Amino acid sequence: MNTLAQLKQFTRVVADTGDFESINQYKPIDATTNPSLIFASAQDPKYKHLMEEAIRFATNETTDKSHQLGLCLDRLSVLFGLEILKIVPGRVSTEVDARLSFDTGATITKARHLIAMYEAAGIDRNRILIKVASTWEGIKAAEVIEKEGIHTNLTLLFSKAQAIACAESGITLISPFVGRILDWHKASRKVDHIDPKEDPGVLSVTEIYNYYKKFGYATEVMGASFRNTGEIIELAGCDLLTIAPSLLSELEKMETPLTLKLDASKAAAMPIDKIPMDEKTFRWMMNEDAMATEKLAEGIRKFAADLVKLEDMIKKEL
């Protein structure tokens, strides 16, 4: 049995891509997208028909050019999601505009709009995860819409503070970014390699997973943003792992025996202290964590920049 097949025995494998062919090839349960992946896929000629359909939708809805642009962006994200849902048996994650990351009200409005689009296309909201950046404002927006039956995936998560705030707010799923944590520590330590067993991203997800299982939180942990297969192997047993096609391919070609690394039954017996979480505690813990503060801000900027590039593409077509 190859390593990918072994991993699927312990963990729900999710495809981290907007490319339908890759999703079809590796047979994941779920799939995740983000602005960068949508932008990359939208440039591929084989997906030009989705861009054209999104533009038709937006221009039929309104003659206001600025409103058309926003509608087209939302419709394009949903169209990619609809195509992915034809392939995966589970859920797809669709991201709220990163530029709304510090606006609770606007995030709530956008999430409701995206869900309405999916439901108008005949998709049950239980098959959608609305992705929101793990700012305090984003977490509070997600808390509101979770109570409406809109499930969320809190992304750009780099710290225990973010994870605890999400769990306390009843979030469905979190996406800790393993590889981006590694990137920061490699740069900080001025090293080219850190062993997967000592990888700070792996250690962070392990700590969060054990905390959740110790205190019985229902929020699922989905490790994301991997740089190598070693990180993935060290997180076997995590609730979910979202993996890029290149790494899925590597795992499929490997025959490395896999063992369970994260175990909920063992976590229950661990001596872990519970941390009460409110806004002041959240902001202080983030302030004390330079890596999490920097990577969250950088991640929002990068997603926002790719949205602007996507908007520029759409403007030319409009």
Would you mind describing this structure in some detail?
This protein has one domain (3-317): Aldolase class I (TIM Barrel). Strand 7, helix 11 (229-234) and strand 8 (240-243) form a beta-alpha-beta unit. It has an 8-stranded parallel beta barrel, surrounded by 9 helices. The chain has helices at 3-10, 20-26, 35-42, 48-61, 65-85, 104-120, 136-146, 160-168, 178-189, 200-214, 229-234, 245-253, 264-267, 279-287, 290-317; strands spanning 12-16, 30-32, 92-95, 128-133, 152-157, 173-176, 220-223, 240-243. The protein is α/β, with parallel strands linked by helices and 318 residues long. It has 15 helices and 8 strands. The chain starts with a helix and ends with a helix.
Summarize this structure briefly.
By secondary structure, the chain is α/β, with parallel strands linked by helices. It contains 15 helices and eight strands. It has a single domain, classed as Aldolase class I (TIM Barrel).
What is Rg? 19 Å
Count of extended strands: 8
Low-confidence stretches: none
Oligomer type: single chain
CATH H-level homologous superfamily name: Aldolase class I
The SSE order reads HEHEHHHEHEHEHEHHEHEHHHH
Number of domains: 1
Secondary-structure class: alpha/beta
Order of strands in the sheet with most strands: 1-2-3-4-5-6-7-8
What's the CATH class label? Alpha Beta
Give the overall shape, derived from the CA principal axes. Answer: globular
* CATH architecture label: Alpha-Beta Barrel
Helix content range of the residues, please? 55-70%
Q: What is the averaged pLDDT score?
A: 96
Output the number of helix runs. Answer: 15
- β-sheet strand percentage: 5-15%
Measured distance between first and last alpha carbons: 50 Å
Largest sheet: 8 strands, parallel, barrel
Please name the CATH topology.
TIM Barrel
